[in-house]
Design goal:
With 506 residues, this protein is α+β, with helices and mostly antiparallel strands. 72% of the residues lie in helices and 7% in strands.
Length: 506
């Protein structure tokens, strides 16, 4: 710590011992620096904020969503500082007065692009900033120029968002109208070819795809008919089984006797056996059938049997007739479907070229029809969208902070630069004094001398001055203080002039 303090004492002594040189260097550096700072032109910055609202229910219903609008605004924000737009700004402001050639226009646009900033601070809030610091213009002119540039950029932003797409929309609709006219003509020609072909080959109406679809549907219908026919035949067989086990007449108490009554009873017993599932080969059934044959012989000798018709047998006869008619109808339908399938299959096998032609004509017609419908739908959507954009724009544009004339320069920070030059000047003077002290072979303290030669110092002799010397020293000290105070005073004067100049900007 003592060594550090010793070095500080040595440095201060070296600077103070050469204070006049340090003051001269400080004056020279400060004057040169302040002159350079004075040469810097003031740059004035104008700023504006605009708000863009994207919510609109009608626009979203027809397909103009917020996401689409945000993309449009991002596109405009990115292209706002394009060369074309900056050329508009140059021509509409005083910058264009000095432009007389394409080369000068390129230079002016390049400089202007460096002084313009467009950024999105929030989702719907945009900030436009322009800076002007031309040395050939006064501070007031630079301030007004920055304001004019921002205002022109706002006008371009509004024009691109609210009305820039109308001409493009009109051109798009005209193009779609022309494409629709061409497609309609091609569609009419394809339809005429299709009608001529179907007139020559009516069995190929609809093309090969339609024929294949018709064949598949016919086969599916035939499968359904087969299922229904099988069910009807099963139902008919069931009725036949019930009819076989039901007697035609029924016994009436007191009206039947002898062989005839025994015959009726035997037939009833036979029906009961069959109803229980006994087959014709069963011994009981065989014996009962022999008995029935013998009784029928005896009953025939006795004459016509007495009794009344069986109602159940008559009802089963009606059901059987109905189900038999249903079976015949289904068989007829199946035969018709089979004939149709055979005919279509034969036509496809005998005329493969005609089938291929039918498929090609049908495919061409379907493709043209689909393209025509899509173009028609796109045109109507674009037309409706254009009407909404023209009559009720989905973008609500509002300038929140209009560009105003800046009152204070944004750059350079001249007070800070003046103070920095003063600090640098004083530091340079002190540094020069210390550097010269290091070059001279003198020692400020006895400790420095002892450390350098590594020899003990016996003693030191103080500096002795006379009364005249002390008076001269005081006079020189006053002059040095006056020189240092003059440097500080000049800094304060320049600082005051800077603030006065800022207040004079209109």
């Amino acid at each position: 710590m003592n060594a550090i303090l010793e070095e500080i004492r040595v440095a201060l002594w070296a600077v103070w011992n050469r204070r006049w040189l340090a003051l001269a260097v400080a004056w020279g550096v400060c004057l040169a620096g302040w002159l350079a700072v004075a040469m810097f032109p003031n740059a004035y910055e104008s700023r504006a904020r605009i708000f863009v609202q994207l919510d609109d229910v009608l626009a979203q219903q027809i397909g103009i969503g917020s996401s689409s609008r945000k993309k449009d605004i991002e596109r405009v924000t990115q292209t706002l500082t394009s060369t074309v737009n900056l050329e508009k700004v140059v021509r509409s402001t005083r910058i264009g007065k000095e432009v007389s050639s394409p080369r000068e226009m390129e230079i002016a646009v390049e400089k202007l692009a460096q002084n313009i900033t467009v950024k999105s601070t929030e989702d719907n809030l945009f900030e436009i900033t322009a800076t002007s610091g031309r040395s050939d213009l006064s501070d007031g002119d630079n301030a007004r120029l920055a304001q004019d540039v921002v205002q022109k950029l706002i006008d371009i932003f509004r024009e691109d968002n609210l009305g820039g797409s109308r001409g493009e929309m009109r051109e798009t609709i005209d193009f779609l109208d022309q494409q629709l006219a061409d497609r309609q003509k091609q569609l009419e020609e394809a339809e005429q070819r299709r009608l001529v072909f179907e007139g020559k080959h009516p069995e190929m109406i609809g093309g090969a795809a339609s024929i294949a679809q018709k064949l598949e549907s016919t086969r599916a219908e035939m499968r359904s008919v087969d299922a229904d026919l099988a069910a009807a035949q099963s139902a008919l067989a069931a009725v036949d089984g019930q009819l076989a086990g039901t007697p035609r007449t029924m016994m009436v108490p007191g009206a039947m006797g002898g062989a005839q009554g025994a015959l009726m009873q035997a037939e009833a017993n036979l029906s009961d056996m069959r109803a229980r599932g006994l087959t014709d080969s069963h011994p009981d059934v065989v014996a009962l059938e022999k008995q029935i044959d013998a009784l029928r012989t005896q009953a025939a000798r006795q004459g016509a049997p007495a009794g009344m018709p069986n109602p159940a047998y008559s009802s089963l006869q009606s059901i059987r007739a109905e189900r038999q008619a249903n079976v015949q109808a289904l068989q007829s339908r199946r035969a018709a479907l089979q004939s149709e399938i055979n005919q279509v299959t034969a036509n496809q096998a005998l005329e493969p070229g005609v089938a291929a032609e039918a498929q090609r004509i049908s495919r061409d017609y379907d493709v043209l029809r689909k393209q025509y419908d899509e173009l028609l739908q796109d045109r109507e959507q674009l037309r409706l969208r254009g009407q909404v954009e023209n009559e009720r724009s989905a973008i609500k544009f509002e300038v929140i902070d209009p560009p105003s004339t800046p009152r204070q320069p944004s750059a350079p920070n001249r007070p800070l630069l003046l103070l920095g030059v003063l600090v640098v000047g004083l530091g340079a003077g002190a540094g020069v004094g210390w550097a010269i002290g290091q070059l001279r072979s003198s020692f400020a303290t006895s400790g420095k001398l002892e450390n350098t030669f590594e020899l003990p110092v016996i003693g030191t002799i103080s500096h002795v001055t006379t009364e005249a010397g002390r008076a001269l020293g005081k006079a020189r000290l006053k002059l040095f203080a006056a020189g240092l105070g003059g440097l500080a005073g000049l800094f304060l004067v320049l600082l005051a002039a800077e603030f006065i100049q800022r207040g004079m900007v209109a």
